[in-house]
Specification:
By secondary structure, the protein is an alpha/beta fold. It is elongated and about 80 Å long. The chain has 16 helices and 18 strands. It is about 30% helix and about 20% strand. The chain starts with a helix and ends with a strand. The strands form five sheets. It has a seven-stranded parallel β-sheet. The protein has a five-stranded antiparallel β-sheet with strand order 12-13-18-15-16. A two-stranded parallel sheet has the order 1-7. The longest helix is centred in the middle third of the chain and has 17 residues. Alpha-D-glucopyranose binds next to helix 1.
């Protein structure tokens, strides 16, 4: 939890404060049009799945359990020795994601504990060496691809298992003086090479990788940043191996052109379209069902389906993507709470996905009505009014008068009438503004978690 705060504090600093100098640095010289094109599928997709799965799933009490409980590599070994996800069926996961309307997945190939879900040639700390005995990543990638879901890889820059990784403030051994003293014998360049080799493996052996999520940097005192990771070299390698790949922003390269593709705030909702130097940038927020990324048996602050949908809609209304995380259990399935959210989201997305995919912020002239969120599809020239709290009979749309050709409830395509709006407009008893369009809604909320009204603009 401490570290969540640290990441936020860092990402909230103005860019200038995160970098030592303002001089332009370039990893590759892609034009902004080229970047926009490269990211087109991503900004259209809007909705993805994050999967945090690994040894910590057995502990069932946060993916940072090793750090939170100051476990040594030996203490943590019991999870490696008992890792046997006998119920693992990636086809089922992929189906769930597909039905929930998710268009891409990001899989933790290695998390901070250093355990690899893939059959790396550079370590034995991997699933093939556990009682399970098999590579977990390949079948997952294949299953998701078969459902038409794009593939992203999460790779932790941090590694609490690698012997050459120096003990720092986030390390499980941070309070252990004897372990700290051994830092002088540790050689981070060996670790850098290890990372490079693994990133090469991940970008060479699993076909096209659409997204790479590197996590994370905490430069400064007792931390680690771009020099420790050789972020520039790593990013150059990524661009060379898979130039189409979309990379997040946590390698401490915010001041490099080509050092990141999109911002990735987590756990809190950005209040507006994320900007850098005053310019709107691509962004994708990563969020959890509950208060943990890895499976957490006893954590009960699960968001409701409505809250999760609200989060998705809100994100799209600010021009961003939402990637929602699931933490499968140690046996390799999703627990009942997760299944419930997947199906609830799927039920909504099946009929309302049109208000999400390819959508973005609505033009400013259209005011957001009370208790609603607006999304907008520029290609179709339609506005979607997501009604969070069902009003009584009329929904007043300021700034819409004369601009709407046709309106319907999206989930069933039933017409929403607005005839006679001129009359209403003239009666000041209802407090109308001159450019208000009152929609006639049924008194009862349709049986949809968040009903959506589709407005065909003139
Ligand atoms: C934070 C968490 C980490 C998680 C990541 C996902 O860095 O500490 O465990 O993998 O967010 O964005």
């Amino acid at each position: 939890m401490i570290r969540h705060f640290a990441y936020f504090a860092l990402s909230l600093l103005p860019l200038a404060a995160q970098t030592t100098q303002a001089e332009a640095k370039t990893i590759w010289d892609e034009t902004s049009e080229e970047k926009e094109q490269r990211l087109e599928w991503f900004t259209d997709a809007r909705f993805g799945l994050f999967i945090h799965w690994g040894l910590y799933s057995l502990a069932g009490r946060h993916e940072w359990v090793m750090k939170n409980e100051s476990m040594s590599v030996d203490d943590y070994r019991k999870y490696f020795e008992h890792f046997d996800p006998d119920l693992y069926d990636p086809k089922e996961w992929a189906r769930a994601a597909k039905e929930a309307g998710m268009k891409y997945v990001v899989i933790t190939a290695k998390h901070h504990d250093g355990f690899c879900l893939f059959d790396s040639a550079y370590t034995d700390y991997k699933s093939t060496q556990t009682p399970y005995g098999k590579d977990l990543l390949k079948p997952m990638v294949e299953a998701f691809r078969a459902e038409g879901i794009r593939i992203g890889i999460y790779y932790s820059l941090i590694d609490w298992h690698h012997p050459e990784f120096t003990v720092d403030k986030f390390h499980p051994m941070s309070e252990n003086e004897a372990e700290r003293a051994k830092n002088s014998e540790r050689d981070m360049s060996v670790y850098r090479e290890y990372m490079r080799n693994q990133v090469r493996e991940l970008l060479s052996n699993y076909g096209e990788i659409d997204v790479l999520f590197l996590d994370f940097s905490y430069p400064g005192e007792d931390g680690k940043g771009r020099e420790d990771w050789d972020s520039v070299g790593l990013m150059q390698l990524v661009r060379e191996l898979q130039p189409q790949c979309i990379v997040n922003d946590r390698a401490d390269l915010l001041d490099y052109a080509g050092g990141w593709d999109y911002r990735s705030p987590e756990q809190i909702k950005p209040r507006e379209w994320v900007t850098m130097d005053g310019k709107k940038v691509p962004w994708g927020t990563v969020q959890t069902f509950s208060g943990s990324w890895g499976y957490y048996r006893d954590e009960h602050t699960w968001k409701s389906t409505k809250q999760l949908l609200g989060m998705l809609i809100d994100t799209v209304s600010k021009g961003g993507n939402l990637i929602l995380n699931v933490g499968p259990t140690g046996r390799g399935n999703f627990d009942a709470r997760a299944n419930d959210r997947f199906s609830g989201i799927g039920k909504w997305m099946q009929v309302n996905g049109r208000a999400i995919y390819g959508c973005t912020q609505a033009p400013e002239a259209f005011k957001t009505p009370e208790n609603c969120i607006l999304t907008y599809n520029p290609e179709l020239n339609r506005i979607y009014v997501h009604v969070l709290d069902w009003p009584m009979g009329k929904l007043w749309l300021d700034g819409f008068a004369g601009k709407v050709a046709y309106a319907q409830l999206l989930h069933d395509g039933s017409e929403v009438q607005f005839k006679g709006w001129e009359e209403w407009q003239q009666d000041s008893a209802y407090g109308n503004a001159a450019n208000t369009l009152p929609l006639d809604l049924p008194i009862m909320q349709p049986d949809v978690e968040i009903p959506v009204i589709e407005l065909f603009l003139k």
